[in-house]
Design a protein that fits this description.
Blueprint lengths: L4 H19 L16 E4 L2 E5 L4 E6 L10 E2 L1 E4 L13 E4 L7 E3 L2 E5 L6 E7 L2 E2 L5 E3 L14 E3 L2 E5 L4 E6 L5 E6 L9 E3 L2 E5 L4 E6 L5 E6 L9 E3 L2 E5 L5 E5 L4 E5 L18 E3 L2 E5 L4 E6 L5 E6 L14 E3 L2 E7 L6 E7 L7 E6 L8 E3 L2 E5 L5 E5 L5 E3 L7
Antiparallel strand pairs: 1-2, 2-3, 3-4, 5-6, 7-8, 8-9, 9-10, 9-11, 12-13, 13-14, 14-15, 16-17, 17-18, 18-19, 20-21, 21-22, 22-23, 24-25, 25-26, 26-27, 28-29, 29-30, 30-31, 32-33, 33-34, 34-35
């Protein structure tokens, strides 16, 4: 399939924007701050999220009140990984957080982009303790960045790094269990099911590793880089690629189906699959950077429908992972310049016309998070919102504290 000049231009712009976002880590001493697109997590009734200024907040989900002062995540260094060289000298730099917080028990886990460390903080009475319970590594750093999410399963913490290494730590103490080097950059979070870890890489491959030892079980190559987190459901691994295809693999690494099967089909996607898909029953909902949500039969990969959410002369790309709330698929779509976005609800019981819940004069990159009928959103202007998925009522969190 040949792409139009306009489509190629849009794809190149998206590449430039994404890479520039990941490379933009500035010094606090100059008045600028770190960036990040971390989503929101929850422990009991406490929301936990990291801002683009290197602060981590705990918020009461019922009232929206900030619980205690935020943790300020900073690193002090001169040059190198931790500071842009033009800043000069010894600099205190905010730690950029791209990976959404991982949570388990009373611990919150965060991965640093520009300092290459994992932090574990205790949550006590709804408030995060100022000092981490542990960091990994204890001394120094990993010499690379953590971009994808942190996954906790069976007492272990799993994550991948930008230098292509997958790690497993003990979740309670942060001691290394094993590491496996793929050799190429990893931007996605691992998915763990049973005794196997699945993860995608920018080397175009999906890897299956033994969750207990890190030994490689198999690899499967697609036609493009992979930054999406795999979805594992009912013995299948679903994942999107930059080759504009979706894949379903079985647990032995064999291809079950690929969509589209024919690259010249009329329903062929026009851009990458960046976000993680979701599944309901036998239907897979896959958001795409072309502004559409593709509905596929999860068993066969056959095309059901494509819901076009583009607006204002075909604006919009979907880079934020959607969520299902009751019978509604909640999706965020943002224009290329990240200046405007809209949130839609799609009734998955009858696939009726999408209903616009709200709009912003800011973009949405971070994955959506839902709890008790509320969808939580982190925008590119570093605002945090709670959106009622039924009524569309919107609450903006005020993050004013004593610090």
């Amino acid at each position: 399939m040949k792409l139009s000049a306009n489509t190629k231009k849009i794809s190149l712009l998206l590449i430039a924007l994404i890479f520039s976002l990941l490379l933009l880590v500035s010094c606090m001493g100059t008045g600028t701050v770190a960036r990040g697109w971390a989503g929101i997590s929850e422990i009991d009734s406490t929301l936990v999220f990291a801002s683009m200024t290197g602060k981590v907040y705990s918020v009461d989900s019922a009232t929206g009140a900030v619980l205690g002062d935020p943790i300020k995540m900073v690193v002090t260094a001169s040059g190198g990984l931790s500071c842009i060289p033009s800043c000069g000298g010894q600099q205190t730099t905010a730690i950029a957080i791209y990976a959404s917080p991982g949570v388990a028990g009373d611990l919150v886990y965060l991965g640093g982009y520009n300092d290459g460390k994992v932090y574990a903080y205790q949550l006590v009475d709804g408030k995060l303790k100022e000092e981490p319970l542990w960091t990994y590594p204890r001394q120094g750093d990993l010499g690379t960045s953590i971009i994808g999410g942190l996954t906790i399963a069976d007492g272990k913490l799993y994550f991948g790094t930008a230098n292509g290494t997958v790690y497993a730590l003990t979740a309670a103490e942060g001691y290394k269990e094993w590491s496996y080097n793929i050799g190429k950059k990893i931007w996605s979070a691992p998915a763990v099911e049973g005794d196997t870890l699945y993860i995608g890489s920018l080397d175009k491959k999906v890897y299956a590793l033994d969750a207990a030892t890190g030994a490689k079980k198999w690899e499967f190559e697609t036609g493009g880089a992979i930054s999406a987190t795999p979805l594992v459901k009912d013995g299948k691994i679903y994942i999107g690629s930059y080759d504009r295809h979706l894949y379903a693999l079985d647990t032995s690494g064999k291809l079950v189906w690929k969509f589209p099967a024919d690259d010249d089909a009329t329903d062929t996607p026009r851009n990458w699959f960046w976000a993680k898909p979701v599944i309901d029953g036998d239907v897979l909902y896959a958001p795409c950077l072309d502004g559409k949500v593709y509905l596929l039969n999860a068993l066969t990969g056959s095309f059901i429908d494509a819901i076009d959410l583009r607006y204002d002369n075909n604006k919009g790309a979907i880079s934020s992972s959607p969520v299902i709330v009751d019978d509604n698929l909640i999706v965020a779509i943002t224009d290329l310049a990240k200046k405007t976005s809209r949130i839609y609800a799609i009734d998955i019981s009858n696939r009726s016309t999408p209903r616009e819940l709200t709009s912003f004069t800011e973009g949405v990159n971070a994955p959506l998070f839902a709890s008790n009928g509320i969808v939580y959103i982190h925008t590119t202007k570093d605002s945090f919102y709670g959106l009622n998925a039924l009524s569309g009522a919107l609450q903006k969190f005020s993050l004013t504290t004593s610090k």
